[in-house]
Specification:
- By secondary structure, the protein is mainly alpha-helical.
- It has 4 helices and 2 strands, in the order H-H-H-H-E-E.
- The protein has one domain: lambda repressor-like DNA-binding domains (434 Repressor (Amino-terminal Domain), Orthogonal Bundle), CATH 1.10.260.40.
- A two-stranded antiparallel ribbon has the order 1-2.
- It is globular, with a radius of gyration of 12 Å.
- This is Helix-turn-helix domain-containing protein.
- It comes from Phyllobacterium zundukense.
Length: 85
C-alpha cells in the first residue's frame, strides 16, 4: 500500500464529519463518483479502490483542512488543521 495515500474508510467519514460536508461534496472536490467514495468509506480497514482515487480523496480533504494521523499505537485518526488568523 502506498503510504502517501493510505487512509481508512473511517478516516474519510470522520474527516467529512469534521468538515461538515456530504459525500457528494467530497466526491465533486476529489473528482470521483459518489459510488466510488461510498465504497471507500465502507471498506473495512484501508480505503479500497484505485490508488489515484484514494490519493485524490486524501488530497481534497487535506486541502480542506484535514490532517491525517498515522497509527501510533492507538490507531489512525484525523483532526482539523489549526486555522491561522
Amino acid at each position: 500500500m502506498d503510504q502517501t495515500s493510505a487512509i481508512t474508510g473511517r478516516q474519510i467519514a470522520a474527516a467529512r464529519t469534521l468538515l461538515g460536508i456530504s459525500q457528494a461534496e467530497l466526491a465533486v472536490s476529489a473528482r470521483i463518483s459518489i459510488p466510488t467514495l461510498k465504497r471507500m468509506e465502507a471498506s473495512d480497514g484501508y480505503a479500497t479502490g484505485m490508488i489515484n482515487n484514494v490519493a485524490a480523496v486524501r488530497s481534497a480533504l487535506e486541502t480542506a483542512g484535514i490532517l491525517f494521523i498515522d497509527p501510533n499505537g492507538n490507531g489512525p485518526g484525523v483532526r482539523l488543521r489549526d486555522r491561522q488568523p
